[in-house]
Amino acid sequence: MQKTQKQKITDFLINNGVIIVMFILVIYTGLTTKNFLTPDNGMNLLANMSYRLVIALGIAGCVITAGCDLSAGRMIGFGACLAGTLLQQVDYSGRFFQQEPWASLGNGFLLKITPLNPFVVLLLVMVVCAIFGTITGWFIAYLSVPPFIATLAMMEIIYGLGLLFTNATPLGGYVESYTLFSRGKFLGLSFLIWMALLMAGITWFIFNMTRHGKYMYAIGGNAQAAEVAGVPVNMTLVMIYAKAAAFYGMAGYMLGAKAGGASVNTGLGYEMEAIAACALGGVSVTGGRGKVSSAFIGVAVLELLKTALQYLGVNANAQYIAIGIVIFIAASLDIRKYLTKK
């Protein structure tokens, strides 16, 4: 039976209620406060969204396959710390690697201890994090460990490794070429924003134009049916979690550059925000559905909500309650859409 126009409008309002309310809140905040609807605040908002979008893009693949990744926040902190230790100024008093400017390396060969190229460090961080993601994906795919348990275990392992590696010491004193990554601009936009847009484009291509993307959606729809149809389910899952971890490493690199410092607690709780953003934007927590635009919309809505509440003078602690309510509503609406389709 076809839906009437009234039913269609009702469904639209219910399914998109959170976004509609957010739109109204943004307009109200802009009309009642100063500097909210300004170019500077818009640029700050986009910069804050940049690394959060990269995280959400990584975690979206896990959610589309009806999984999750609780290790994201700790992976971000580990990536930020790994990048930080390799990109500190040589003469910084709190330098992590306390070698002299020149160190002997066998047979009198001298090696100058200088920070690595920031781009090389970015690739290194992504590769190291991807290795941990591969391990997580292997346990999920080949040992049938539930994603919740596997990523929870990896979260603890990464946190412990981060503490041992850094001695639980905050890092700082970065070289200018690294911090410039967050301060530099091209065509009026921060390098952070361009990096997020690049990763969004790459993710869109993977999701929509590759076999891997088709396999991912098939697994999320019905893993057993996908396997019968010849989809390499196990290898695809491993690749999804490896790719996600590489994205977390990049986000940690970006966050470290923006903050000018890092610790093992950098990125703490960001995995929950990313999962919430995915659900809010339309990446189904039941699997099989989700787009790059879904992650972007979810991240934008959450960031706008936090910024608007700050401008309205809402208590910082109360903001967590508001965000929690939004997550409840978003998840409930997603389940409602799933049950309606069944």
Automatic annotation (TrEMBL):
It comes from Oribacterium parvum ACB1. It is a multi-pass membrane protein. The chain crosses the membrane at residues 12-31, 51-70, 119-141, 147-165, 186-207, 318-335. It holds the Pfam family BPD_transp_2. It comes from the Bacteria. It is found in: Cell membrane. InterPro entries: ABC_transp_permease. This is Beta-methylgalactoside transporter.
